[in-house]
Amino acid sequence: MPLTKVQDGSNMYQGWVTHTHTHLRGECPHRCGYCYVKSGPGYRTGHYKGPLRLEKKELAVNYGTGKTIFIEHCSDLFAADVPESWIRLILQHCFEWKENRFVFQTKNPERLFDVFADNRFFRPGNFIVGVTIESNRWHQVMGDAPAPRNRISHFKRIRSYWPTMPTFITIEPVLDFNPVELADWIEAARPTFVNIGADSKGHGLVEPDEHDVLRLIRLLQCAGIEIRQKKNLGRLIKNEVEP
Q1: Are strands 19-21 and 193-196 parallel, antiparallel or unpaired?
Q2: Which residue, of 8, 119, 216, 236, is most buried by count of CB atoms within 10 Å of its CB?
Q3: What is the pLDDT of residue 129?
């Protein structure tokens, strides 16, 4: 699919991500039970069904300048099943367009760290790296993704190795959690900011109550961490949280 501009009113990191682009096709290897992609047009047309594959024509897309582009927002470039040769081709495509910033979000930060640390073209100033952690607990709907404790451990390595690179943690869809432990994990990882969002596709997930969500937000704010609440979080919390 071509380079796509993020539309006004979108829940996709509106305000700081300007565009999205995907090179991968087929089903995401994590097979999470809440996958929003399966309710979208790309799934209905077959783009994100079937075996994982690389759409090579997307490697020729002109990124231009001055954009913040979320790469592979419908899959996970660093999932264990993605061939390393594909990852390097996609990264090389990004490296060619230095006048942009590129956003990578993963549930496998261990592999992201290994690939970036081994790539001589990598320049942290052009990249924003995030990890998804829906909870501090394992939930069956997480599918084949690494466990949350594994994710946060390797995300901390990324933050330590590239201390000036912007990083973020996305808690979406937020699942039932222990607010104190999850806040401790996030504070130790020192992200630049945290996104928090809820399931918006009616998957019937085991979600936290309003009290726990508000407590997590306040704990993180007290730690000096910027919180970016996605619009769909309003379904879980009715009370205002002071910025």
Answers
A1: unpaired
A2: 216
A3: 97
Tens of pLDDT, residue by residue over 93-129, are 999 999 999 999 999 999 999 999 998 778 888 999 9
Q: Structure pTM?
A: 0.94
User: 4-235: what fold?
Assistant: TIM Barrel (3.20.20)
Q: How far apart are CA 72 and CA 52, in angstroms?
A: 13
Contact 124/85 with Cβ under 8 angstroms?
no
Domain boundaries, the chain: 4-235
Return the DSSP state at 128.
E
Reduced DSSP (H G I as helix, E B as strand, rest coil) percent helix, strand, coil of the chain, to 5:
35, 15, 50
Query: Is the dihedral angle over the CA atoms 214, 220, 222, 227 positive or is it negative?
Result: negative
178 three-class SS: coil
In eight-state DSSP terms, residue 235 is G
Bridge-based pairing of strands 19-21 and 24-25 is: unpaired
